[in-house]
Predict the 3D structure of the following.
Amino acid sequence: MRTSRLFLVSSVVLVVSAILAACDKSPTVPTPPPGGSNPPGQPALLTLEVVGPDTVALGGTAQFAAMERYSDGSSRDISSRVTWRSSSPAVLSVSATGLATAHESGEVSISATPGRDHFAFTGEIIVVPAGTYRLSGSLYDDKFPLFSDAQVTILAGSGAGFTTTARGFFRLYGVVGNTEIRITAPGYDEYRQRLDVRSHQSVRIGLALSNPRQQVAGTYKLRIRAADECRSTLSDEAMDRTYTAVVDQDGPLLTAALSGATFVTTGGRTMNTFGGRVELDQVSFFLSTEFSETFPFPMVAEQLTTSSYVAVSGTVATTSSGSRRTGLLDGTIMMLEGPSPYRRIAACSGGHRFELSK
């Protein structure tokens, strides 16, 4: 039977259970039979399980079964009474009787549904050529997933010469035995590793920067000036806003916290922070949208008067020149009328000037 380990060899049999889930019940509570409680003396239905292998050979077939398990330890095969579905029929299709056919390498999940209120599904089923395995890996920059594209190449072993592009995660199918992989990404040192692949494996790989990372942390003056074409739409106050920005850095990730104004608080959160990322040739900031029950607020929303507000959203890629970091904010500056529920009274989208200076 499948254990809690994620990767097992293809000869191991998979037994994955899913508790019968009703729309208005906890998934840990068995679904009662139609008409109410079980008759006295009758065993209670506990779970529905989908039983089958965790690996299917490319071009081959495998039989899956839907099994009901009862409180007295008995079970019943209801494979012919369920609706079978595959999460990716192009990889592994499944017939009305639970017979699965593997068409191409990949991974899927198979579900069995006996009715509208409950279902069961397998964990990950891997399709690879017979006698081979899947090698997967997570790519990291410092402790964070790699943000840029990387080339993963098999240099030696089965599949030698195969290359794939990955961003943060890769999968290689049909790997077996002594294998060497190479990973390259712009701005990072080349990485090589030898592995003896005898089962489905997953590796964690940290890439090292070729040059020191830009250090952005510090206290800045942030000035956001709306594009000139917004003058006929926005008030003079909304056209030009200045704040104090404290930027913290953790590896490639940035967090900016603003002060120097009265910011909106909604849902227990003050709308005066946004994130960013240090990339190879630029530093980007993301003033994305934060949704509340009453209004979709950008992450920066300032109160101008007792009834007027200005809010800013968008993304900006900045470059450094001396003590300044500047770029065009691709987003929207809005004027709102409040208090809550807030009403949008004006908005202007375009390339707004974003400037951090020390």
Summary: The longest helix spans residues 236-239.
